Amino acid sequence: MKKVHGYDRENCRRVQRDGDKRERVVRLGTPALEIAKIAEEENVDLIYMPMKGENIIREMLIGSTAANVARVAKKPVLLVRYEWDRGKKAVKCYWDARRVFDRPLFALDFSKCTEKIIQTTELFKELVKEAILLHVVDYGKESEVEENIQKATQKLKEIAEKLDFPSEVVVHSGDASKEILMTAPSVGATLIVIGKRGRNILQLLMGSTAEIVIRNSVLPVLIVPCD
């Protein structure tokens, strides 16, 4: 897997295998734009970005480097949360690099994002022990919810059959971002995989499902561009 790492002074342990080749690049400019640009130039598979746990809402609204990379990049972006432990004077990571792909939760909405997310599984399918395929029914009339849940369950089962790893199918109804954030820890997910569409100014102010998940998830989040 070819990756771009967004470094800072207190970086979490890196997601890498022994023997990976690394190249250091120094650029002048806006960090997020330069990272996204390098990812395109090098045709990387994945961008890895650490994201501070403190003041996460402020960072998302004002724009940290990690958040801005997630917004502008055309490559998948893996965001991981960390904090600086002042007492121990060490980095406190919220995840274990050895297990991040063990049990990913894929948030699928049956749009073109779903196809992009499934394509992205090729990058790490050999590391997956079992996945969770989640769809949230947040559409239709109240009287149609049960029928829509049944239809969604069948669609997820069809997707699961095409994957190269065992998958559990889960369908809930309600607000998509809330259900994703509640379901992931309850099923023991080690990663949330979610699609990101193009953003207009209203979405930027109100917050998309992907951005709400990034803002509130303690788990690593893999953002897959769908456009």
From TrEMBL:
<comment type="similarity">
    <text>Belongs to the universal stress protein A family.</text>
</comment>
<dbReference type="InterPro" id="IPR006016">
    <property type="entry name" value="UspA"/>
</dbReference>
<protein>
    <recommendedName>
        <fullName>UspA domain-containing protein</fullName>
    </recommendedName>
</protein>
<feature type="domain" description="UspA">
    <location>
        <begin position="12"/>
        <end position="81"/>
    </location>
</feature>
<feature type="domain" description="UspA">
    <location>
        <begin position="105"/>
        <end position="225"/>
    </location>
</feature>
<dbReference type="Pfam" id="PF00582">
    <property type="entry name" value="Usp"/>
</dbReference>
<dbReference type="InterPro" id="IPR014729">
    <property type="entry name" value="Rossmann-like_a/b/a_fold"/>
</dbReference>
<dbReference type="InterPro" id="IPR006015">
    <property type="entry name" value="Universal_stress_UspA"/>
</dbReference>
